[in-house]
Amino acid sequence: MENKELLLSALEGTLWIALATSVDGQPNVRLLNVHWDSNRPGVILFPSEKDRKEKSDTEYGNKVAFAGIPSGPGPFVKGVGVVRRSEVNFEDIKDGLAFRAPHFMSDESPGFDLYEIVIEKTTLILGPNRSADATPA
Q: For 11-14, which contacts have Cβ atoms below 8 Å and span 24 or more sequence positions?
């Protein structure tokens, strides 16, 4: 399997990422439930609760780093990109997120804004001391 195919497979299997940001010189990492759509291979989507204080550190436009959290054996992805508010409607991806995190379907949910990471560079981690550069688009 070529690197691009491995990358697309790894992105498809990625349910969570660790997103690293820095605001006013203060580093921050948080875990995010994500959605990846093969029709937009250079973008990772993630919801954020409406009016949540923490999102001010990425309102957003910031350069970020991310690492996929593997859900099993196989390669995983790390990369860099830019975060911005997405033009995709949350309702359009809600079902794709719901099987991973049922609170997205709850009537008591606070509502969500949708953001996206526009991927600039990715690296596939293939195993100990083994990696390969790959691009999703």
A: 11/36, 11/41, 11/44, 11/68, 11/77, 11/136, 12/36, 12/38, 13/70, 13/71, 13/72, 13/74, 14/44, 14/68, 14/69, 14/70, 14/71, 14/76, 14/77
Cβ(54)–Cβ(30) under 8 Å? yes
pLDDT tens digits for range 58-88:
554 488 999 999 877 888 899 999 988 888 8
Q: Is the whole model's pTM more than 0.70, yes or no?
A: yes
Three-state DSSP at 53 gives helix
Hey, what are 95's tokens?
């079902």
Tokens of 15: 């349910």
Q: How far apart are CA 53 and CA 61, in angstroms?
A: 16
Task: Give the position of tokens 């991310």.
Answer: 66
Write down how long the chain is: 137
Round to whole Å and give the CA distance between 135 and 120. Answer: 8
Residue ranges and CATH numbers for the domains of the chain are 3-127 (2.30.110.10)
Question: Which tokens go with 62?
Answer: 């910031």
